[in-house]
Sequence to fold (206 residues):
Amino acid sequence: MNQLLNCIGLACPIPVVKTRKALEAFTEDGELTVLADNETCVQNLTRLAGSMNLPITSEQTGEKEYTVKIAVSTEAVKKSQGTEIEVTSCDVPTRRGATVVIASNQMGNGEEALGKALMKAFIFALTNSPDVPETILFYNSGAYLTCEGSDSLEDLKNLEEAGTKIFTCGTCLNFYGLTEKLAVGSVTNMYDIVDMQQKAAKIIRP
Fold:
């Protein structure tokens, strides 16, 4: 029995609590893989595994990405029930990089042709920025820019390759009949759009 638990973005002691519940839910021996985003979390998970006499390994797989593997023995887990461990507080960053919010397929108010030309130039300028945005959100008629036929597709794909995450509102794609034409990035919803803006270090609106 193998299980994956994603604890990225969760403040301590939540990862420990979730990991312990996951371990206690095992009905047979196996392996639990936990994804974390800071060393303190890994240390707390190591203490938890130690208190339950479970072998554990961990490795850093990215700048803020850690993979923790716990070999699960259901017998050891049962024997450890009720034990407590000391959990160190870990600070999980809630602010991220810049988020660009594009709510239209044209920039500013006025002539449509000019607005579309300005938006194309704006997106191209982002590709030449020394710090590309962490996220770009597209909604309303901005959804046209991430779909087939968009003059900005190549620039957006270059931004995605550079590490920018691109999201388009699913409701907007459906409204404009573009759901099957999305050509770059992923579909998102209003809850995630709100969450990403709340956690952005800076919001840019063309």
Summary: The first strand starts at residue 2 and ends at 6. The radius of gyration is 22 Å. The mean pLDDT is 90. The helical segments are 14-24, 39-51, 74-80, 112-127, 153-161, 170-175, 190-198.
